[in-house]
Amino acid sequence: MATTSAALVVTSPGATFERSTIERRELRDHDVLIDIRYAGICHSDIHQVRDDWGGTTFPIVPGHEIVGEVAAVGPAVTRHAVGDRVGVGCFVDSCRECEPCKDGEDQYCLRGNVPTYNGRDYDGEITYGGYSQTIVVDENYVLRVPTSLSYEGAAPLLCAGITVYSPLRHWAAGPGKKVAVVGLGGLGHMAVKIAHALGAEVTVLSQTLSKQDEGRRLGADHYYATNDKATFKTLSGTFDLVINTVSANLPIDAYLGLLRLNGTMVNVGAPAEPSEFRVFSLFRGRRSLAGSSIGGIRETQEMLDFCAEHGLAADVEVIGADQVDEAYERVLRSDVRFRFVIDVATLASA
Ligand SMILES: [Zn+2]
Ligand SMILES: [Zn+2]
Q1: 14: alpha, beta or left? (left if phi > 0; alpha if psi -120 to 50)
Q2: Model confidence pLDDT, tens digit, residues 47-83
Q3: In terms of domain of life, where is this protein from (predicted)?
């Protein structure tokens, strides 16, 4: 039987959130029904609710940083049991047959994976995300949340955490490596923590020094303001890896100049407008300019286990269901330390 779930819904671009209900599908053989406890607020939720990227299907229920408890399982489920602490990230299915899927890089599925919300299941049903009491997901796309991680601290790991963990691992951040993190928001604060735990020497590059104390507390060894031109001279040719978490257009040539021989600048934040850079900036020092998108299911589990082992979680501000519109305004002003997480229990009491 399909289940009805309370949810926060936006019915048109620019509208505010309303309490409403959505239907979750009847459990298929491999499905897991999850009682959601917390859902993180990702910047991409805001873009899609406002239809900034075009193509949003309304009504929309955002949320792809989901943690909760298994409430029921389909007859063939083997990976999860009722009562397990679990999470769901940015996608809920992939083709499972293409080369990236077979290689465990299902975030790069060639058919296109099924986004957790504002997407369509392969059977055509519109997907609704985590700002809701329950969700039904195939067991292969459900992560185990280790008991040492709090639900609220774990939620943002499902998008912000894996989005920075994947490039840090791919480009081998670790002892002897110098890593710069550009921007100290939801993504950036996790990049600092994870890069530090991996053993890299971590530098934060932020517009001003206003978050310097927090940056050092999170694990940064150095902290520089990018509004100070001297920063780019001082740090010229320094880094093995620059992780850019900023979604505004930056002067890319200036940042490429910070890379040492064979260094790479990886973008995980996406500006809406095209970016410009000079190829000469890459010639010097055989530098690379790259991008990276979230992470696969296998690597997301690895990231959760790594965070549990190292005592890492997101720094969060927990809010109720009626505070989401206000939280969006604050995210847009960068007024959050460092991620908002919705206490989904507050959806029940109207
Ligand atoms: Zn996200
Ligand atoms: Zn695939």
Answers
A1: left
A2: 999 998 889 999 999 999 999 999 999 999 999 999 9
A3: Bacteria
Q: Which domain holds residue 333?
A: 3-159+295-307+314-347
Same domain, yes or no, for 111 and 191? Answer: no
Which CATH number do you get for residue 278?
3.40.50.720
Tell whether the torsion through CA atoms of 34, 35, 41 and 47 is positive or negative. Answer: positive
Same domain, 80 and 45: yes
How many A from CA of 101 to the centre of ligand 2? 4
> Which ligand has the minimum distance to the alpha carbon of residue 297?
2
Domain count, the chain: 2
Question: What's the 228 CA to ligand 1 centre distance in angstroms?
Answer: 30
Q: Which ligand is in closest contact with the Cα of 110?
A: 2
Query: What does pTM read for this prediction?
Result: 0.97
Q: What is the 3-state secondary structure (H, E, C) of 187-205?
A: HHHHHHHHHHHCCCEEEEE
Contact 158, 89 (CB under 8 A): yes
